[in-house]
Structure formats: C-alpha cells, structure tokens
Specification:
Number of domains: 1
CATH superfamily: Vaccinia Virus protein VP39
CATH class: Alpha Beta
Helix content: 40-55%
Number of helices: 10
Number of strands: 8
Radius of gyration: 17 Å
Order of helices and strands: HHHHHEHEHEHEHEHEEE
Oligomer: single chain
Structural class: alpha/beta
Distance between the termini: 28 Å
Length: 237
C-alpha cells in the first residue's frame, strides 16, 4: 500500500493506534494520579464553561474573515481548559494562527498578559484581539518577543505554539528545550497539519528528562515538573 505523503501516513498511523489511544483517553492504563486527573478532568472534560460562547463567536468571526485554516472549536475549548487549569498570568504565543488560541487563553483571566509573535502580520488575528489589545504585546520579531517574555519574572513559563516560520525554527526549538529543563507548560497546535510543528514536537519531547507529554496527534501538551516522572501519553481526545 502506498501513501500520497506524510500527512496521509500520519492519518493511517492514527487509525492504527485509535483503540489504544481511546482506552488511554478514558484513563485505562494510566497509573500516575496527575496524568489520570489531567486527562479526564482537563483534556476530556465535557462540562460547559462560561467562555465557550465567546470562543464560538470569535471563531465564527475569524472563519468569516480569512481563508486560512482556523483552529477547530474543540481544540480552542481545550486550550481554554488547559490555561484555566494552570491559570498563568504571563503567556507566550508563537504564531497567531488567526488569534483563536490567544482568545481562548486570554479569556481565562482578565489579569493575564500575552506576548504574541505574529510574523505574517495576520490581519484576522489583529482584528480578533482588538478588545484584548491592552493585554497583548504584539511582535514581528521572534527574538524580541521571546526575550521580552522571559525578561518578566515567572516561575513556570506557559507557551502556546500556533505556527512557526522556517527561519525561526532553531531559535524556537532552543527556547522550548531550555523551558523543558525546568517547570513549564507548552501547548502545541497543528502537529498533524504542519511538518515543521510535528518536528518541533518530536524534538522538544525528546529533550525532556522529567515531566509528561499528552498528544492526540493533532494537539500536544507538555507539563514539565521535576516531581513528575518522564512519561509520554498518546491519547484520544
């Protein structure tokens, strides 16, 4: 059997591992209390949240304003839940990806701030985030955005990867590898859709020495803490 490309191969592999990921997504075989709780109460949570209507409305606006791929509502909700669980006050996002991930994260707390690297000057993201402009520092330089973010005192970086430019790959990978040596949370979107993101996910998780990663092949979450044993979970969520 032959496949047209990497994306088709990834879909085939996801199909082959579907049953095992489904069982893990329901908590079967997960022995870590943290991983069990995080999987069922955050990644798989089905209860409604107050911000879901805002996310739905903003996503509709973004989808009407651009022909680009817009983050699915289910993933946007998941980003909200993850952000809500950790409640970071300072967030770094690389790649605006139409602004939906940023909206999801910023709706957790009115006190949070975001450093957003928007290399393509994504107009849809600027419009979508206009009402949050007082809490978002926009950058067109990856170096300046990352340096400014890390210059702010924060014990545990909270990072969202939406998209990356090829030339920024070494800098971003280096920053993520440094982050996973300590306590941090990293959300990576578009793993299946973009080869550079898939590679970034593989290289970052490969650099972990403690902590846990959770992925369904489309979205991935890294939670690093020296109290957590090194574990990688392939899930259905």
């Amino acid at each position: 059997m032959q496949f047209a490309g990497t994306e088709e191969m990834k879909k085939f592999r996801r199909l082959l591992t579907a049953f095992g990921r489904y069982r893990s997504g329901k908590g079967f075989g997960i022995h870590s209390p943290f991983a069990f709780n995080f999987t069922l109460k955050v990644l798989e949570e089905r209860c409604p949240y107050y911000a879901y209507e805002v996310i739905k409305e903003k996503r509709h606006i973004a989808a009407s304003a651009t022909k680009k791929h817009v983050l699915p509502e289910s993933e946007a909700r998941r980003i909200f839940r993850i952000t809500n669980y950790f409640n970071p006050q300072r967030i770094l996002q690389i790649g605006s990806d139409c602004g939906i991930a940023a909206v999801s994260a910023l709706n957790v707390s009115g006190k949070s701030r975001m450093w957003l690297y928007n290399p393509s000057g994504d107009a849809a993201a600027y419009r979508l985030l206009e009402e949050y402009s007082g809490r978002v520092d926009f950058h067109k330089s990856a170096t300046a955005c990352i340096d400014n973010y890390f210059s702010e005192a924060q014990a545990a970086p909270f990072i969202i990867i939406g998209d990356i430019e090829g030339g920024d790959y070494p800098l971003i990978l280096s920053s993520l590898k440094k982050a996973v040596t300590g306590k941090c949370t990293i959300i990576v979107c578009n793993i299946e859709r973009r080869e550079t993101i898939s590679r970034l996910w593989d290289e970052t998780t490969g650099a972990m020495t403690t902590g846990m990663s959770f992925s369904n092949g489309k979205l991935g979450v890294i939670v690093c803490d020296d109290k957590l044993p090194l574990s990688h979970y392939s899930l259905w969520f």
